[in-house]
Amino acid sequence: MNQLPQQLANGLILGALYGLVAIGYTMVYGIVQLINFAHGEIFMVGGFGALTAFLALPGGTTLWIAIPLMLVAGILVSVLVAIGAERFAYRPLRTAPRLAPLITAIGLSIALQQLVFSFYPDAKKARVFPQIPGSPFNIAGMTIQRSDLFLIVAAPVCMLALGWFVTKTRSGRAMQATSQDPDTAKLMGIDTDRIIVMAFAIGAAFAAVAAVAYGLRTGQIDWHMGFVLGLKAFTAAVLGGIGNIYGAMLGGLVLGLAEGLATAYIQHVPGMQLFGGGAWKDVWAFVLLIVVLLVRPQGLLGERVADRA
To answer: Is pTM, for the whole model, over 0.85?
Structure first.
């Protein structure tokens, strides 16, 4: 029980990371009913874009100046890749059977991995990512690394800003209209192509923010980091109710907590010694998904039309 506060903190921080990436899945699905399996690789290229910006800075640049520039570079790279994918890979298949864009997304995911692996200098091994220096904070029995503070602040700010944008702005209301009925929205003068591109761009920007947070937290990035994390983020989106912005973040938090608590405590349950520890954390995450979907197939918050984006 002495470890419980720390495990809760670890789970919430990890869950916030999943939630940021999951919002990208839910944005695209809410508009075009597409599961963009290349989103994990958009997260990955955002991390490499941020790292490239950091390496290009003059020596001695403080991290407080570097981090905003890294964010801008990572977001720019992720958004450009996402817009290019939408324009050249997904848009021609918009009226095709759903299996075609799904297979295209998987192919694009593999292609992005191989491009970074083949052409980025030293991408074959994990690249060192800068970390925020200084001692961790000890709060109520919890140790919080300084690099985690970026994620703790960024996740709720991004989610609330997106919620405000979708419900209060003209473009956000156009997103809601497009998600409900794209044909009717087009007849009412909404440029649905622009709205779809906007959804891809916003999801990619959030993925880039998550990539910078991931790099700051772990101290490294690699060319295949988006695959498993992308699957976890998709799981979080389904868990919370895919198509629901707040559900994506809630699903991420629940998934992160489940991983943290299962890693620490399952092995202490009598008869479960072989099923605990870090090696089983992914298994328990998907077990949780199966259990929730058996009880509530629409996810924790469901797929409310008003919150779809």
So the answer is: yes
